[in-house]
Structures are given as C-alpha cells and as structure tokens.
# Entry
Amino acid sequence: MDTTITQFELHFQALSGTSCGFAFPCDLKGRVDMDRLSDRSRNNYLYARAMVGRDLAAPAVQPVPMH
# Structure
C-alpha cells in the first residue's frame, strides 16, 4: 500500500483518559489557518490552546497519510 503525506494535523492529546483530544489541519510547522476553520472548529482550537497544561498536552504536528 502506497501512501503519500500531503497534509498535517496539530494534535492536542488529552492528559486524562476521561476526555478527548483535538486535531486541526495545519502546515508542516504547526500553523493553523484559523480563517479556514468553521466557527465550531475555531472555538475548539482556541479552547485547546487555552487548556494546554491543564487538560491537554502540548500540541504535536502529525502527518496525515493520504490514500
């Protein structure tokens, strides 16, 4: 199976097992284009950034394999 990486996501992993993490499309350096997010996704992104160190771990850029 051949996969090519063409996209990246910024992942915020939950610190506890009782909550979910978040993932947002980003570039290779982890920059999220907030203008391209829906209102709900933008609110979730701002929430995730504010919760780093409390409910969420520091974000990590992860490649998204495209099939």
About this structure: The chain has a mean pLDDT of 90. The chain has one helix and three strands.
